[in-house]
Amino acid sequence: MNAFKEPVGKKSLVEEIVLIPSGAGRFEVIVDGRLIFSKAATGRHPTADEIIALIRKG
């Protein structure tokens, strides 16, 4: 969450993060209802920096 802090007086880029347990090794990142990363599609886990960049890209 520290990666998304904005200067004082501005709205945060991320207001909430929800982790939803799943099965079969599934790992997906969804922002505002849009899938931005899928382990099923890439065959690998993302790095933290990769997820931050994808969220910032919007």
What report would you give on this structure?
The protein is 24% helix and 16% strand. With 58 residues, the protein is α+β, with helices and mostly antiparallel strands. The chain has one domain.
Characterize the largest beta sheet: strand count, sense, and whether it forms a barrel.
Answer: 2 strands, antiparallel
Helix content: 10-25%
The number of domains: 1
Class based on secondary structure composition and strand pairing: alpha+beta
The average pLDDT is 81
Low-pLDDT residue intervals, each spanning 5 or more residues: none
Beta-strand percentage range: 15-25%
If helices are DSSP runs of H or I spanning 4 or more residues, what is the number of helices?
2
- Tally of DSSP β-strands: 2
- How far the N terminus sits from the C terminus, by CA atoms, comes to 16 Å
Secondary structure: elements and pairs:
Layout: E1 28-31, E2 34-38, H1 39-42, H2 48-57
Antiparallel strand pairs: 1-2
Looking at this protein, list some descriptive labels.
two-stranded antiparallel sheet; 58 residues; 2 helices; 2 strands
Short summary of the structure?
With about 60 residues, this protein is an alpha+beta fold. The protein has helices at about 40, 50-55; strands at about 30, 35-40. The protein has one domain.
